[in-house]
Specification:
The protein is mostly helical and 520 residues long. The chain contains 21 helices and six strands. The radius of gyration is 25 Å and the shape is elongated.
Length: 520
């Protein structure tokens, strides 16, 4: 750790700031790590509002249906992510013999896979910082911990974000420190990039990053090797997906056509990224401008190429309705590494200085940056973030400390007991508005992602004529909404072109309202 006695005289007066940063980073990373573990095992419903959609798909696959089914046919599930994450979790669930009706257990497994990927990402980040970037132990620990902090909570959730970012960062690490990169390293990097893309589609950004980087640092021949390997791996992966899932493209491409909203981007997505990370963005931009003409160091050129592409891609995709600040996670992690590399020469040994005077000013500067980031973002992290992530985002409103809405909770068992199996019969369905009900209640559910389906219906992406026919024929036997006010249905009098006028209130139970189909 930094020795303050060896700081230059003008920095002595500021020596408390780095130490403040060190003290801020360690406890914050530990607390968030414990919070991540709690989320994994708690079974709490709907962290961040986008956590359970993949769980429904996992249940569907474990019940023998393909991962990607026709969005225009029952159960009208739109799977918005590529398959690698689903395949891993489904394989583990089958090995562990998790019953698909056990929504809480399946959610814990899915979140656990993400959490392990997050830990692997932190460990890989630390190792690459030490070996490829030649950072000190303290500096590497600082940026690995700060990366863990600034990507919370996305890498703890039942989503492919952590796994996709892990593959993407590993792809960069495979070639960033090579001088020059071997064909084996380039092919490995291309393969990891394809894995990232087939884990989450937004990692298509890796294609221009790697190609431009290889052209600038290794030459056209090596870039052709990388492009050829990527095309071969990508074509093979796409072919296998289309062979096994005929509706693959209608889900992962058509299913994400939510439309564009500048207001949503300006007032929600962009502020959530900029408020806590403005200082980091500025320093990363300074690093890119400083290294723009330095082709001799492939590490610097990786930052010069990747940071602008990651940022521009996140800004462009952030315009999509339903986007969030997790689109900037790759940029955030790489920006931390760039700033660390920018500051690291301050901590290098000076000739003739003597081993006893070696000072890690790079780590000190990073610690000061971490303290500054946390202080600048303090109102954001302590008020807006806590309310949004850890209080109101859970349905119904409850805190993570006392979750009354855990997926394995009694209220869902009570609700399930009130669904008459004789009424459902062999061909009946349930339309449940709360996403958690679709996961926790063992019944044939329809349209798990109501908001996504509504966007697809309004934009004409999916023809929901089959849903309308099911409704008109009376095969949708129950409608379940949250609370006791029918306005909470959020569906209006019609949904996906079908009238809801045939439902009559049956009862309020366990915080839900059950409607039964009568056709009147």
């Amino acid at each position: 750790m930094m020795q303050s006695r060896s700081l230059p005289q003008f920095m002595q007066r500021f020596r408390a700031l780095p130490m403040l940063g060190y003290w801020a980073i360690g406890p914050a990373a530990l607390i968030l790590g414990l919070l991540g573990l709690w989320i994994v095992f708690s079974g709490v419903a709907q962290v961040r509002g986008a956590d359970l959609q993949p769980v429904f798909t996992l249940q569907k696959a474990l019940r023998g249906l393909p991962i990607y089914t026709d969005p225009a046919a029952a159960p009208f599930d739109i799977v918005q992510y590529s398959p690698v994450y689903y395949l891993v979790v489904v394989g583990l669930a089958e090995a562990l013999r998790i019953d698909p009706a056990n929504g809480a257990g399946l959610a814990s497994l899915a979140r656990g896979v993400s959490f392990l990927c997050a830990l692997a990402l932190v460990a890989g980040f630390y190792r690459t910082s030490r070996r490829a970037l030649e950072l000190s132990r303290d500096a590497a620990l600082v940026i690995a911990s700060l990366g863990f902090i600034l990507t919370t909570p996305w890498f703890f959730l039942a989503r492919p974000d952590a796994m996709a970012t892990l593959f993407a960062m590993a792809s960069l690490a495979a070639v960033a420190g090579a001088r020059p990169a071997s064909n084996r390293q380039i092919v490995a990097s291309a393969g990891l990039a394809v894995l990232a893309i087939f884990t989450k589609q937004n990692e298509i950004q890796m294609a221009p990053v790697l190609f431009v980087f290889l052209v600038l640092t290794q030459g056209w021949r090596q870039a052709a090797v990388g492009a050829g390997a990527g095309l071969v791996f990508g074509a093979l992966a796409l072919g296998l997906c289309l062979l096994h899932w005929p509706h693959f493209l209608s889900n992962v491409i058509g299913g994400v056509e939510n439309g564009v909203s500048f207001d949503y981007f300006i007032y929600k997505t962009l502020p959530n990224f900029l408020y806590p990370k403005a200082v980091l963005v500025g320093l990363a931009g300074f690093a890119v401008l400083s290294w723009a003409r330095d082709r001799d160091d492939p590490r610097r050129m990786m930052f010069v190429v990747a940071l602008p592409i990651f940022l521009l891609f996140a800004l462009a995709t952030g315009l999509k309705i339903g986007s969030a600040e997790n689109y900037f996670n790759e940029f955030t992690l790489l920006a931390l590494a760039a700033v660390a590399f920018l500051l690291s020469p301050l901590g290098r040994d000076r000739p003739g200085s003597g081993a006893e005077t070696v000072t890690d000013l790079g780590a000190a500067g990073l610690a000061a940056l971490a303290g500054l980031v946390l202080l600048v973002g303090l109102p954001f992290w302590t008020k807006y973030q806590l309310e949004r992530y850890w209080w109101h985002a859970i349905e119904p409103s409850s805190s993570l400390i006392l979750p009354r809405d855990a997926l394995g909770g009694e209220r869902y068992r009570i609700l399930e007991s009130r669904l008459d199996r004789a009424v459902l019969g062999d061909d009946g369905y349930v339309l449940a508005v709360p996403m958690s009900v679709n996961i926790a209640v063992n019944a044939p559910m329809l349209v798990p992602q109501k908001d996504v389906a509504s966007q697809s219906y309004r934009r004409g992406i999916v023809n929901y004529g089959a849903f309308k026919r099911l409704m008109e024929s009376g095969r949708i036997r129950y409608l379940i909404v949250d609370g006791i006010d029918t306005d909470n249905a959020r569906l209006g009098s019609k949904f996906l072109g079908a009238s809801l006028g045939g439902f009559v209130r049956q009862e309020n139970i366990a915080g839900f309202t059950i409607f039964v189909w009568t056709g009147r």
